[in-house]
């Protein structure tokens, strides 16, 4: 195409344009750009690393699994079927992946200024060596280049893992998962470190449509009577131990709110019986999830798993889309979230325990300065996870730092989580986080609030030491 | 006056002072500065354009109708009577308009840094050619210059409309309005495009003190039995069709919350009977307004009117002022506003309808990144209106962009609304919006997140194409 | 130590690094840097100025009383006993103050980027003349230098007061305080102006564990029957008059919410009887506090005391810590706070009273643009206190200005409160506030929104005239 625009990754991207700040940011970034990637929380598929098979094509790799991307296209009138997104019943529209790619390329301007365009351009440029911008005119060139590359050995999952400089990556599995892929990876002799994390939501949320089935399978897998409260807790302890044996150093909990509870065993038993009966009210379901969080904290004291809470999302908000396409189709919407009252029962029991670590996330940025910073700046067990999901753009990362720094400092935060299933974008995402942290620090140095040697220490800590320490890696 | 300070409009105003960003912002602005004004939502008086009579004087034109201005003066102890603000009973204090103007001029420093000072200085400088700053010493010079100019043909409403480069402007009328002024404009042969918008609040809000009267007149005007649910809906359809025939392309709904409902016809009938009886509770009034929003969406699918919701204001908060001076006296205060649960009933019905457009506004900025961006970045029908009312200052416009860009991008927003009855300030307001959008884009370019040709496209889209597309103009 | 890093206070600290803005900020700051300190709200101990005794040592002066500092150390695993923080029973761990200081110095990096490090470095540099950075290697040098200096006459409280250029400082006392220290100061002939402020929370909050005792003592001190509603109100009037006679120009109210009420005398009497009986419910306690706020406003109209409300904190959130160490141990956490409905009862009565001043504070920054700016930009009695407590960092001060400027302007705000018991940090805190206001104004000038002469006026008003006017000093 004569009209193709050049694609470049500017070495100063994301740094402030003020020359003083930019020079400082450059120097700080030089110290962290090459550090290994520590990815303690994410959603890559362990099968990739177990089987090490080639990815199919550009569309299957970059478009179909990325709800950041197809969400935006859907918002501008592109039907999910036009992209070949799988439906709830497992079927898919008969769409040529190249045609789906063209639909995406035609509309790549919709992503201007969004983090998706930044990550994707990074992948296009650095992983696939593309040097023209994606648009209608270059769609086929892109599709062919990417799809061809994927067939080569250098683009197999393990080769990319090594090329990306990943020191350790955590996946996320349900207690029902046998962790076979992790076992295969460990047995393979491959040196890549892929660990799991314990995410028990399917057996914790009574409002999930598959909860009864999940509970039954939880009993089968563990051999415990999981329909009794004590057996249910024993089953969790058993699976947590198994997950830890497969490398897990953390549990993760995705709840609608951050509510915790501290019921007596007798109360918990009665509540659990109600939940198991399938007749719990929404309030009882909420109380049950709240109680389980406190039980998980108790278990963390024993087995040392770091605990993470990701609250505050209305899942599958679009009813029609959910009925047709199922979960995780870009229709999750954040909710106002409260932490101060919600966490009190758990903190009353474990807030001062030196062995306990609880990492908090939020989708409600109004809590950064009001609740989360002050909580993490006081309780020894509490740390703040990075700007999450809808807030992982450069602007969101700046807000996170500017709104938590005064009260939590840098050292009650834990560095970056990429939190992604978009494997190829992992270097891009860590690079963005490192650049923004360097930019934030450069501003502090330029305004004479910290010295540059201090900023260098902090930049390295945020990129490498803090995530390792927080997740006990 | 020897002491008079010069008044200038700097060509780089509102652009970042960083030289890199400023140069880019200048180039972007050059591409949009001269584009026609598209004003799809506002509150100018159609009588001005129908009758084309001269405005009376500086005070009547610039001070008395502008609640942004007299609100600030009132907050600093100036009685409304000292400004000649009309009272609820229609009377006015016997105040010399020149004296009121002096009171204002004496206190113009109170507006330092506010958008009002920016808009007013733009009007003073560009519309009236003033070159000294407004203060106590120049009050009379201002009053005389402005009042004299207003008597000349070039300052008649139609002449100003043309001078301002307005391509189309929408006013806002109640269903009870016969739209006579619009009819006069259309019949006059004047080429200015002035359209109406359908704002049915007076016949939708059972808590408005004049609701029973309004409902009765609604019946008289339409000939429908508006005290039956079906007749009431038919009356809306009829008036919407009439409004559309007078150019309307949108409806607008100013509600205390964004609640929507999806009652069965039987439930709606029972609720409506209660509302008509005058004995509805606050909860029932709220449910009724919620149900009407969903009915309006249903009608939009048929007649193509774009729907707007402006929720979240406590109207007439100052009881004493309301009793003495009535509505709209600068005592409206924003409220915390929820969208995710509130919109679900409406979105469950119409959220995936390709023919439907719903533009959302907010006075609660905490919803930008948490709720509105993610909603608009998913639902095909949803678009975000610009930073509104209390948030239309440069800082508010920056926050809007920085907090919605990651999730909604630029293309799920609709460009600018001036939303004003201050006719003379319309060019100033659009100029501010264009400058801020150019500044936002310049920062993205300077930090190498988008290329300048992309930024140019976006700037032009925001200033011109997006409002035309969103409002179907 | 060879490794000691230099400690410097850069003359341009906190100014934007953009050269245009920095030059303007410098010029503005030159106009305000030397203005006297007006400190209308704070928590210094009047005994210091009455007795004028030497402070004990570095740890007792700078570490033990500063919950900003030991909170952060506690959050990173330092037990309060290791710092010698007093326990609830009055005992203290037998910790060498030098050892506590070393514990702090070892971890001074935790404060990077926080306001505490900025204030402390200012104190170290300007008050004690230290020129190396605090860290493990310089801990002893710091401890010795500071402790030795404190034994000299120039470091006695009155000498520091004069050195700091304090024109007036307000302390905060309970109605039960006999104000003996203030009497001693007044009788001493010393020219330093130290006034009190009326903070009746202990006799207003039925949920405080010492409320019954406090109420009894309130009766003893005033000779009123404070267990009757009328006697209780008379007791307040009497103590307010006494406080005013000792210089008080304001009352202050720290409540969990901003709720106000306007009960009839008969209702209030019934409620008070319930409260006095010790059997009030949480809702009744809340209603009582709400009613007292309105009564305080009524008294302000008579005695002219300016009223302040500081709402929205969950006090003593950490149960274990509270039981062991008591109140005010850095475990107070902000809460979501509502103002629009909450203030209506009070404003309905007094909102338009020209003689009444009510200064509002918040720990919920989401209310700045949504509620507080619009309220203060309308009601003549309302003014906004500065960014408070968790939000008094440079970033918090910027947010305060950027989110209230559009609606409240500069002139519905009241300049700075240091709000501190850390006496030595008072110049540092005012300096930070002045620098940030100059930086905010410099940006407005650099972006051609106000002229530099206007910015100079505003800077001086914010630093000096507005606090004096607002607090009637």
UniProtKB/TrEMBL annotation, chains A, B, C:
One of its GO terms (biological process) is D-galacturonate catabolic process. InterPro entries: Metal_Hydrolase (IPR032466), Uronate_isomerase (IPR003766). It is an enzyme of class 5 (isomerase). Pathway: Carbohydrate metabolism; pentose and glucuronate interconversion. GO terms for molecular function: glucuronate isomerase activity. It catalyses: aldehydo-D-galacturonate = keto-D-tagaturonate; D-glucuronate = D-fructuronate. Belongs to the metallo-dependent hydrolases superfamily. Uronate isomerase family. This is Uronate isomerase. It comes from Pseudoxanthomonas suwonensis.
